[in-house]
Design brief:
It is built from three helices and nine strands, in the order αββββαββββαβ. By secondary structure, the chain is mainly beta. The chain has a single domain, classed as Lipocalin. Strands 1, 2, 3, 4, 5, 6, 7, 8 and 9 form a nine-stranded antiparallel β-sheet that branches.
């Protein structure tokens, strides 16, 4: 218990229980936090306005066997959410939007500081295009998610992939409460762009 509390206090990444141990004949690759990125983009007024930014990943791992991904996971530190479309020269509106997104009306990071994806299955479609299925948890709610990853490259020593997809925020409780008018001003879907790189533990960074 002391070890767990210490890890939480330091903000360390802890492998979720749902992530199975790697096959003894496989290789476990750790997420490279310096090269893996998450970019988000949200729109309002039916696409007429937008905001975008980044969220830092804090950990992840993938089990590879004979060039195939058997399963894996990665998670994001929601407290690291940043707005990038408002310049630093406008600190007040940038800070207000950031606090708004971190607050109860959106991601409620005080109670839910981590978002996580548990990878369940990867299917080859064609060329370097792969169909990825798993479970996404945001704001404490878990929903199945399937998306297509491009630029997919896997060996027993390295994994690289890129993906872009949309998420219905209401499925995860990312909604204004008690004000339909306000909520209608923000479009239902938001977009995520992922760049994922993972390597053998000797060359990867596994926590910030």
């Amino acid at each position: 218990m002391l070890l767990l509390l210490t890890a939480l206090a330091l903000g360390a990444s802890i492998a979720p229980a749902a992530a199975r141990k790697c096959d003894p004949q496989g290789s476990e690759l750790s997420l490279d936090l310096d090269k893996s990125t998450v970019r988000w983009r949200g729109t309002k007024f039916w696409g007429l306005g937008k905001h975008e930014g980044t969220v830092r990943l804090k950990g992840g791992a993938f089990c590879i066997r004979q060039g195939r991904v058997l399963h894996g996971w990665f998670e994001a530190d929601m407290r690291s959410l940043e707005v990038t479309d408002i310049p630093a020269s406008e600190p007040v509106p940038r800070r207000r939007l950031t606090e708004h997104l971190l607050g109860e009306n959106f991601f409620a990071v005080g109670a839910h500081p981590v978002s996580r994806f548990i990878l369940r299955e990867v299917q080859h479609e064609r060329g370097h295009l792969y169909r990825v299925s798993g479970d996404l948890t945001i704001r404490g709610r878990t929903r199945p998610l399937t998306f297509y990853a491009r630029g997919w490259s896997v060996t027993d020593q390295e994994l690289r992939a890129q993906a872009g997809f949309k998420i219905d925020r209401h499925e995860f409780g990312v909604s204004y409460r008690g004000s339909t008018l306000k909520d209608d001003l923000v479009d239902d879907d938001f977009e995520l762009e992922l760049v994922i790189e993972a390597r053998s533990p000797r060359g990867a960074i596994t926590g910030r």
